[in-house]
Amino acid sequence: MVKLNKIYTRTGDDGTTVLVGGVRVRKDDPRVEAYGTVDEANAAIGMALALSTGEHAQIMTLLRTIQHDLFDVGADLATPLTPGEKPGAALRVLATQTQRLEREIDHFNEPLASLASFVLPGGSTLAAALHLARTVVRRAERLSVSLHAADPATTNAEAIRYLNRLSDLLFVLGRVANAGQDVLWVPGKNREA
Questions:
Q1: Helical axes 125-150 vs 57-77, angle rounded to 10°
Q2: Cα separations (Å) of 39 from 36, 136, 152, 154, 188?
Q3: How many Å apart are CA 66 and CA 59, to the nearest integer?
Q4: What is the chain's mean pLDDT, rounded?
Q5: CA–CA separation, 64 vs 45, rounded Å?
């Protein structure tokens, strides 16, 4: 369990931080960039929660669950895999968490109309916040992919799959929040003089 008594330690004043396990790295290390962006995505989801209303209770409950998952993703990325690591030795994102997101995508997407074009981010306040969270999750995914490419033996690929599904879910939830009032992209709409 995490226990925080003192908020500042001054140990990071030199531009370094400590990963789970005690290894000190620079704050711009790819692993720190990845889990830091997951934290940013979690904050963006928190903003979406703050902007949601009672009519979106099901979305609010799901977003709160996802916030817990994102702390798991961050902890996973902050803890390099070790050779021969035993299951349960470190907090890792599991396939069951990704599969839960897939079920939620199917559940929320089923009643939505098919799309004939890309959706412009925006619409309702909640939809706009969900689209912003989606783009931050996509950035976290890209950084995690880069981390995995640079250090595949120490990076859990399931965390990447989770982030990929989460961005898809946030897109669908944005459409749900817009209640069928999505604004679609019109290619070349403003090209005429």
A1: 20
A2: 5, 10, 21, 20, 36
A3: 10
A4: 91
A5: 8
d(CA 185, CA 170): 18
- SS3 (DSSP) at 86: coil
Distance from C-alpha of 133 to C-alpha of 41, rounded to nearest angstrom: 6
Q: What is the pLDDT of residues 2-32, one digit of tens each?
A: 666 777 677 666 776 677 777 787 677 899 9
Its pTM surpasses 0.85: yes
Answer left, alpha or beta for residue 60, where phi above 0 means left and psi between -120 and 50 means alpha: alpha
Report all structural domains of the chain as residue ranges with CATH numbers, in order of start: 27-80+92-105+118-177 (1.20.1200.10)
CA pair distance 34, 120, nearest whole angstrom: 26
Please identify which residue in the block is written with the tokens 């997951």: 38
Sequence-separated (6 or more) residues with CB below 8 Å from residue 154: 80, 81, 82
Of the CA atoms within 13 Å of residue 138, those in its CB half-sphere come to 11
Phi/psi at 151 (nearest 5 deg)?
-145, 65
128, two tokens: 């706009």
- Residue 14 confidence (pLDDT): 73
Q: What is the pLDDT of residues 43-74, one digit of tens each?
A: 999 999 999 888 899 999 999 999 999 999 99
